[in-house]
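DATA SHEET
Item: assembly model
Revision: 1
Owner: S.N.
Input lines:
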Amino acid sequence: MSMMIGLETHVQLNSKSKLLCGCANPVSIKGKTNIEPNTLTCPTCLGMPGAKPRINQNIIESAIKAALALNCEIAGEIYFSRKTYFYPDMSKNFQTTQYEVPLAEKGMMELNVSGTKKKIRIRRLHIEEDPAKLIHKSSPTGGYTLVDYNRAGTPLIEIVTEPDFSTPEEARLYLQKIGQIFDYLGIYDFASEAALKSDGNLSINGGERVEVKNITGTKEIEKALNYEHIRQKNVVRGGGIITLESRQWNPQLGVTKTMRKKETEEDYGYTFEPDLTKIEIKKSLIEKLKKQLPELPDQRQKRFIKEYGMHEKEAEKLTSEKAISDIFEKTAKKIGAKIAAGWISGPLKKTLNYNDTTYAGSRLKDEWIISLLSSFAKKDYTDHVTEQIIRKMVELKTDDKSAAKLLGLGKIEDKGKIKDIVKKVIEANEVAVNDYKGGNEKSLHFLVGQVMRETKGQIDANTAKKEILSELK
Ligand code: ZN
Ligand code: MN
């Protein structure tokens, strides 16, 4: 069965202020937790009558950079529209967005789908404001809803693709790459999965498309679309017909549910926004921003392969996040690329994934990682000790020295201490010692294991073996 998927994605930008007023954008506030609701507001973002919006020029420039990174054609002139609807999350009763003429269109992104390159066409990219946040509370009398206007008026970039994905996996890879590119551009908080929200349109065998709404993050998209694919297949197998509709993804239950028959764009009244003037996008501005574009993930990946002679897979891991590619290069300068790449693309990244965080989100300082891996490179720490320390560092957001101290791990400076441990192990394992003397190599491995356990992995297998053999002489 053939499958067609298209995505509409909203990316939260991390600009200092909101799109249409000078209020702080909560997304850009460090720490971000415990911001008192409805404190980052003004008459404009509260939608009070007569309040005049003003476009934040920085956001236009960020969006142009995003459009350039996605190989889009950029409009010469843009204006904003009002998307009219009535809902408590939008007290103006309209959302300021771009409808008739998007900032950019006809873009392209190249995906790497298990080694094969695939092109995804971008239909359009535009700027719009986010509505307020609704917080639904249940109560014995039936529940109520709170509104937090801190988010009202914060900037979003909406990106719409052509229906070019043939699997839910491709949709995930695309979203990961969107996050990655925006991270490299420095206009998005990579540490927050909530900053990326998508609606997915899925159809099978040329049938009607079903829209799955409000899917948060990159992992959920694959789950939601996989579920929807199976659901549609089952409907068709049972002799049913797929109808045009919107469905809601429920991440807790892992199912999609009917919301409403799909609304069309005509259901919203779009009108020109008279409070904002038309904005000319000068060629010279586009050229200037093009020059300011940083090295993007694909370029950096290619450079890593060439410069450090690494495999594509490793380069891919090391460029998945800008912060991780930066710490890799910093560490490589100190201790060489091979050791740095191995540890950062391996145990460090695995530990971050396990803790469901990113390098930027982990708040580890670069100097901690450099110090730890330098200790490893100097052979002060064994593999085992280094790995334990990484885990502790990520878990407690602490430096390498404190993590080592907490674990009681490090370098055994006292040679006599190692000898004592070896003697103890030999005395306690007479049978194995005699077995080894009788020619059984396996018993030596056993003794090595015992010594390593007693030293908590602070000496490596080779040292342990050497010490045992010299003791047994
Ligand atoms: Zn405001
Ligand atoms: Mn939108």
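QC remark: Residues 217-237 form the longest helix (21 residues).
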